[in-house]
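I hope you will forgive my troubling you with a question about protein structure. The matter concerns a single protein, recorded as an amino acid sequence and a row of backbone structure tokens. Please examine both parts with care and let me know of anything in them that strikes you as inconsistent. Thank you for your consideration; the sequence and its tokens are set out here:
***
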Amino acid sequence: MAQAGIWAIPMPTDFPTSPQTGPHDVEIALDNRPGSLAEMGEALGRAAVSIEGGGSFVVNGQGVAHFLVADGNAARTALEAAGISVVAIREVVIQRLDQATPGQLGKLSRRMADSGVNIEVLYSDHEHRLILVVDDPAKARAVAQAWMHEHDAASILSAKPQLTENGANKEFRSKR
């Protein structure tokens, strides 16, 4: 599990547990032409930098990409060596939402806003977690941790064991 105050939820073991080393959002300026995204992906691949989530868009004729990587500095080095412009490397806040409950994004975003946190970039990673790039990561982490604490407690209180047709607990049966 990640250290308290670093991320809102447990992180995969391949991500370091320090805001200085990762994971990070890498903001990249791309030419709006065929092949620029391929060149970016190839540059990261040659450097063994894996993309864990993100996306790219064209805004006012300019390509803009935001990708989650374990090591922002390694990504910057690889991209700049390939002549690709890195706009920023930023900390992220990672949050899991209950996908089965409509309105989660609105509620979390409202809580962030009410705490004075501006969400500047939002996307999902390969683990279906929400990746937030915000103006105040420390405040956002506090909001995210409180959110998770409340929702973990609520899910424990509302959890009902699933039973098989003969009334046995499915979890118990699968562990035998």
